[in-house]
Amino acid sequence: MTPSQPSSPQTSSTQPASETPGSAPDFAALWASARQLYPIYMELAREFVIDTTACDDLENGVDSPSRESVEQAQQWLNDMDDRVQVHQLRQFLQTSSLVEPAGLIALLQHFLARTDRTDAARDKIDFLLVQYFSQSAPTDLSDDEADNSYIAQSLQPILGPVELKAPVWLNALDRVLESARRCHSLDELLHGGVLEQGRKAKAQAGDLFYLPIALVAFTRFGYLMRRVFFRLMLADLNDILDGLTELEEKGVETIDCRRAQFSAQEPIIRLRMICQSWKVMFQAEYSSGQPLRMLVDLRASVDAALGRGVKNEAGKAAQPAAPKATAKAVPAKAAPANATPVKATAKPRAAAAAAGAAGSKSASSSAAPQAAVEPSSNFAAANDDAPEFEVASSPEEWNPDADSQPGKKK
Fold first, then answer.
1. Is the pLDDT of residue 215 over 80?
2. What is the pTM (predicted TM-score) of this model?
């Protein structure tokens, strides 16, 4: 898997025309870009409560700034870059309607023009490229059609023409993709080492990551990995719902879900509501870390209650577990019609995501509740997880092949 790196890496040709190596900066172009990025960064600061002072000339929309003003604006943007974390940028761009494709291009050109190539900057560029391509690709694009040639053409507004001859070390990405496609559950994907192989390939690329053909290859990799991720996540949710139905038919009303951070006697009716709202939340809100672990553990809890083989975190099959004693058995019959409704107590962001999606034209016809139901513990994504996947917002019905292309139609 280790990339074979040349002793002297080639220079990337991704700098925008305003900062071509060896040429004087185009201050008019830099100022135009700064004005386009400024409202995005200010909104990021407001959403994540980042304490920052306004850049006066950008705030006032000065048309003909001095050179000093342009340099101050660039420094302000660079300072904000250092303060905005990768997970915050991901979450913001997938839940905000503020950023159009032109804004994504401006963000990408801004990051690609920076000379300090940190891991955080690399991860932001990686996400932004996948996000831009996902929004521009048709919803019925097949995996085979999403080759380097197609993606390079889509990224031409950012990278320009790209030489498609890929170095051998990029073949490692195809091997990781094949491993991901062989996964049968989200648990296997998250804990089977596949994600770690993808991260390692990106980290080991070093400065070669910025070669135009490498940027194209990593964009394809991220886009296709998203598809694998969504298919497995949807399959897990459907398996959980089918398992809950089977338990209800056996007269079981509650099951032990402590491993998923719920209670020892969690009502099945409540679990069903949670899963339905997750179907909305996972496409409308940044979703990784804690919520995904809960989804994996909830499936394991349902499997245990059904006496199926349970998998541990390493993905190894364990002995079948009998239904937990805390699962209350009752004579086989439908759940009582007068059952007390479960109160939706979602945290503001999860509730807003689910309610927003449920309020859309297509989501309103689904079975999802108006708000996500919060479990008994912290439901927010762990901020220090540096997650590999992010979920794009979409007002349409959840199509696992289309989720990574939010709102895009052919």
1. yes
2. 0.69
